[in-house]
Each structure stands twice: as structure tokens, then as C-alpha cells.
Write a structure and sequence with these properties.
Blueprint: H1 5-12, E1 18-22, E2 28-33, E3 37-42, E4 47-53, E5 79-80, E6 105-112, E7 115-123, H2 126-129, E8 136-144, E9 148-156, E10 162-164, E11 166-168, E12 171-173, E13 181-183, E14 189-192, E15 198-201, E16 206-207, E17 213-217, E18 224-228, E19 233-240, E20 244-249, H3 251-257, E21 269-276, E22 282-284, E23 289-300
The structure holds 6-O-phosphono-beta-D-tagatofuranose (TA6).
6-O-phosphono-beta-D-tagatofuranose binds next to β20 and β21.
Length: 301
């Protein structure tokens, strides 16, 4: 039986800094008001839905999102695991894996100077073995401060080698996606999912959004910079133990086909996803751990 919000709050609250609250869809969330930033993370999917350093929201959440068990929140930072996209050979399997649509365990809420870290976990059970017959423990730590630090750690608790994909599928809020510019991917090869998964070379220094854009950049550990002339800010994403970066904007038609997004929303969002997918999936021996990190900062321009 899951602990009530009141029970969790009595165990984890830090007066004036962090508390449990009832979020959308009556889903429990941790509300953070650190000295340097505010933020929110739901137990559902261990889903970060807000990060406001210096009061300005950096993440996009769709006003049409569903907030219910079994469905992913549209926006914020969905955690894709143990596969990315559709599960090969299993059309019935949930897209992007099963951890983003289930409730996680709240493990810790800690203040560290002007930042607050929230730790959550989820482990294999009979419901996960149905999709992925393995034993694992997945831990997630979100640190809300002058930067947003996201750390996803997998422990192989079984007796066989694990091979998994993972992505921190972050939706960044932008003033107008068609005016945003992403740098840091020049010279990378990418899989273009809008053109039959053809591989192409990123020749231009900047990635711009001029139509539906759905690209998996390969073998890149380079930081990304998203320049937003409308909101007059630059979002920088550094990454650790991640070999692929996904860039996605659905454009109007695809957005209109997504009931939890809508064609009136696609201009306000741009996804840059720290990940390990496809040929860069991770292999992990029994008893070993792997941590992928994303570090997000924002500066005015
Ligand atoms: O990361 C880009 C992507 O794989 C797109 O192909 C699109 O499917 C997007 O994820 C959203 O997926 P979702 O299952 O959350 O609707």
C-alpha cells in the first residue's frame, strides 16, 4: 500500500524548503523552494515538471497533458527506460519503456547549501518482467539549484548481462521553436526519423527547426546550447556517460495528432534528450552500476 501524501510529507518535508503536495490528477509531488531555485518532481514516473532558477520556468509542460497512472506526463523530463521509442518486435509494449508511467518510491529529500536534491527509485517486479525479464534497481536524483542536475543510475541486480536504452526526454520551454538555435552537434552523424531513419551528417553549425524534426545524434558527448532570442536566454546541457543526443519538435501536424499536446503548443517546446539509444545502448554486467547525468544551466542573452 503506497504511503499517503501526509505520511510522506511528515517523513521528508524540510520546512520552508521542500514539501509533499497533491499535484495534478491527485498525483503526489515534491515541491521544492530552494534558496536558488524552485522545482517540482512527481512520484509518477519520477517526473520533473518544473525548474525555475531565478523565477523563470525552463521546462515545458503541455496544458493538455494527462495525469494518470499508466500514462506519461506530456512535458517536463520523462524518463525513457529500458527501451527508447517503440520496443523492437513488440508493438503492444509501451513506447519509451515502462518506468515513466508508473509510481516510484520516494527515497530522500536533502538540502545541500542553496540546492535541494530529491531521490527516487523503482525496481523490477512481476509487472516489469512481463515486458523485460530482468532484475534491476533504477535510482534517480534530481537536484534543483542554480543548475538542474539529473542523475539516472541503473544497478544490475540479476545474474545476467543487461542491455538497455535510456533517455532523459527533456522538454524545454522556448518563445518560438522556429527561432531557436541548437549548437554543439556540428559534424555529428544523425538518424533522421522523419526520413525513413536515414543517416545524415550535421554540416551546419546550428540545428534549426523548419519542419517536424526527430533526430538521434550519434556518438556525441558534446554539450548542447539552445539559444532562444524570444525569451532572451541560452540553455546549456552538459552530459556524462551519454553517447547519443535526441532533438525533437513535432511541428504542427504531428502535435495536432497528439491529444495531450495540441497544434497550439508545438512552438513553445523543444526537446533535447541526453540518452544512450540504438547502437549506443548500454551493456551492464551483473552487480555493476551505470549513471547517466544531465546538467542544465540557463543564462540571459
Ligand atoms: O524523442 C523523440 C520521440 O522518440 C519522437 O519520435 C516522438 O515519438 C516523441 O519521442 C514523443 O514520444 P511519446 O511516446 O512521448 O509521445
Amino acid at each position: 500500500m503506497a504511503a499517503s501524501i501526509a505520511e510522506l510529507d511528515s517523513r521528508f518535508r524540510i520546512p520552508g524548503v521542500a514539501q509533499l503536495a497533491t499535484g495534478n490528477g491527485n498525483l503526489p509531488k515534491v515541491q521544492v523552494s530552494a534558496p536558488s531555485a524552485s522545482g517540482e518532481i512527481y512520484l509518477h514516473g519520477a517526473h520533473v515538471t518544473s525548474w525555475k532558477p531565478a523565477g523563470a520556468e525552463v521546462l515545458f509542460v503541455s496544458p493538455h497533458s494527462l495525469w494518470q497512472d499508466g500514462k506519461a506526463i506530456r512535458g517536463g523530463v520523462p524518463i525513457c527506460f529500458p527501451w527508447f521509442g517503440d520496443k523492437a518486435g513488440d508493438p503492444q509494449a509501451p513506447a519509451h519503456g515502462f518506468v515513466r508511467a508508473k509510481s516510484w518510491e520516494l527515497e530522500s529529500v536533502e538540502q545541500d547549501g542553496d540546492a535541494v536534491s530529491v531521490g527516487m527509485s523503482t525496481v523490477s517486479d512481476e509487472s516489469t518482467r512481463r515486458w523485460w525479464p530482468t532484475d534491476f534497481r533504477l535510482e534517480y536524483r534530481a537536484t534543483f539549484g542554480p543548475e538542474l542536475l539529473l542523475e539516472l543510475t541503473l544497478t544490475n541486480t540479476g545474474a545476467s548481462l543487461l542491455r538497455f536504452e535510456e533517455a532523459l526526454h527533456a522538454y524545454y520551454r522556448v518563445g518560438d521553436a522556429t527561432q531557436a538555435r541548437i549548437t554543439g552537434l556540428e559534424g555529428c552523424w544523425y538518424i533522421d526519423k522523419t526520413d525513413f531513419f536515414r543517416e545524415r551528417l550535421q554540416r551546419a553549425p546550428e540545428v534549426t527547426i523548419t519542419s517536424e524534426t526527430d533526430r538521434v545524434y550519434l556518438n556525441t558527448e558534446h554539450p548542447l546550447e539552445l539559444s532562444d532570442p524570444v525569451l532572451q536566454r541560452r540553455i546549456t546541457v552538459d552530459k556524462e556517460n551519454s553517447r547519443t543526443t535526441v532533438v525533437w519538435n513535432p511541428w504542427s501536424e504531428k502535435a495536432g495528432a497528439l491529444k495531450d499536446l495540441g497544434e497550439d503548443q508545438w512552438k513553445q517546446m523543444l526537446c533535447m534528450e541526453v540518452s544512450n539509444v540504438g547502437h549506443f545502448a548500454v551493456e551492464l554486467a551483473p552487480g555493476k552500476q551505470h549513471t547517466m547525468r544531465a546538467r542544465v544551466t540557463v543564462a540571459s542573452i
